[in-house]
Amino acid sequence: MGGGQCSRGRRSSAPAIDVACDREASERERRRHLRTRGWIVALVAAAVSACTAVTPAAPTEPPATTTTTRTPRIVDESDRPPVTFDPCLDIPDRVLVEAGYDPRSEEISDFAATHYTFLGCSYHGTLRTPGVLRRYGLNLNSGNITFAEVQEKVAEYATPIEINGRRALLEVDPSLRQSCAVTVETSYGVLIISRIYHPDHGNGVPNNEWCAGLEDTASRMAAVIDD
């Protein structure tokens, strides 16, 4: 071997060269070990990373929706829709007070037959005028008869009107003195708002006052319907 280089097959006879060759061989071995250890570390790191990779969480199902639909207090045996608006439960006291009626005077006046249902309540008015008005009463009846059925029945004395964008009828029945009614169409049937005066004298209430302000009252009550 010439030129001071170390041969991998045999050793040189010069001690200095032998020492240099031994050092070179040791350095090569050390570097080989370092490279090998680096590869091992890299492989282990890759394996650990693969094993510890976060698995995406499975999509969660949305919570089941629960219904808050209330079962009507009364149901009939017909195939008519249930009466979903109950004036005795669904009209806030505040609305009654603002319309001039006392919520504490509430009286239940339901009516159920085999082929239709009415859920009803009555209230006393809060205004009293001695010598003129003894009291007045409000009746609220929510039923599953159709608007067309009412329209046919009261055609002789009813006037078509509109309440809160709904079809309605203003009814002045001459046989029911000092009273007036408004029938409002709903998705399940009708809401009938009727009022009667009880004067504090025998002269009665003039005809032109029977329905005074009732359309406003009907609008307040119908505004609560959520159908």
TrEMBL record:
InterPro entries associated with the record: DUF3558
Keyword check for Membrane: yes
Bias-annotated ranges (Low complexity): 56-72
Segments traversing the membrane: 38-58
Region (Disordered): 56-79
Keywords: Membrane, Transmembrane, Transmembrane helix
Protein name from the UniProt record: DUF3558 domain-containing protein
Originating species: Rhodococcus aetherivorans
